[in-house]
Amino acid sequence: MSGDTKPVLCGECQIPLESGVKRDGEMWGVCSRCGQTDRMNEIMREAAKHFAHKSIGDMFKGLGRSGSGITVKRGPQPHFRWITGE
Ligand SMILES: [Zn+2]
Predict the structure, then answer these.
(1) Which residue did the predictor score with more confidence, 85 or 3?
(2) What residues flank ion ligand 1 with Cβ within 5 A?
(3) Does the predicted TM-score (pTM) go above 0.85?
(4) Residue ranges of the domains in the chain?
């Protein structure tokens, strides 16, 4: 499969960020709706955190379905400024 790079979305607006703004010699991404902006490396780190969180959630959901007796406490969802899209 070729397009396995997941888009990074604004955590607030759920729309793809606009990247390619260069400031202070670094690449920045910006959300065209709410205007939040961050360095690309910070954005990628935040999106990776969100992706890991989502993956763990899916894993626990699968465990629950299989009747393993494991109960998972679902706390409040942490807020991510930048998220990984589908
Ligand atoms: Zn936004």
Answers:
(1) 85
(2) 10, 12-13, 31, 33-34
(3) no
(4) 8-65
